Amino acid sequence: TTNFEVYVSKADFKFNAAHFVAFRGFRERLHGHNYTVGVRLLGSRKISHDGYVMDFGDVKAVVKKVCKKLNERFLCPIKSDVIDIQIVQQDDVVVGNNSNKSNDCSSKSVILTCEDGAKFVMPRDDCAMLPIVHATVEELAIYVWSEILIGLDSKILRQRGIHTMEVVMAEAPGQEA
């Protein structure tokens, strides 16, 4: 039995997203980051029958899927205690200048009203609705960690002797959690 550590970080473990951080008495301006993700797996068993600690291909597929889900989205913290978030259905959207023409499909919008009175309205499809309180890199790292854990299957990780998974997430070079 040996201890091992596997680290996976690829150029395409990234996503671009907009966000702002808000808490009592404070709200950042809306801005974006080019986020990157790295995954470290730690264990204490022998390498498996297939020669792997964990197949890099499995890790890469899961991380890419999580990044794709967040790419080019507004990161919406649905557990915020200072942002009122509503999802509204908008039927019969008028198209062009002719009010007699309407779009057959309906669309959803997300309306965010902040403690300071600022209001943001965005298409629902442009938002990643995340179960976090603040859209900070720290809370995003926890969210991404949980999504990777689900994707890799904790039972399989245990079978392979992996006892710890770390996610390193950066919103800019030198700014990591």
Automatic annotation (TrEMBL):
Enzyme class of the recorded protein, top EC level: lyase
Signal peptide range: none
GO biological process: tetrahydrobiopterin biosynthetic process
Keyword set includes Secreted: no
Keywords attached to this entry: Lyase, Metal-binding, Tetrahydrobiopterin biosynthesis, Zinc
An example Gene Ontology molecular-function term: metal ion binding
InterPro entries per record: 6-PTP_synth/QueD (IPR007115), 6-PTP_synth/QueD_sf (IPR038418)
Cofactor(s) required for function per UniProt: Zn(2+)
Entry's EC annotation: 4.2.3.12
Pathway given in the UniProt record: Cofactor biosynthesis; tetrahydrobiopterin biosynthesis; tetrahydrobiopterin from 7,8-dihydroneopterin triphosphate: step 1/3
SUPFAM superfamilies: Tetrahydrobiopterin biosynthesis enzymes-like (SSF55620)
UniProt similarity note: Belongs to the PTPS family.
Name of the protein in its database record: 6-pyruvoyltetrahydropterin synthase
Organism expressing this protein natively: Fragilariopsis cylindrus CCMP1102
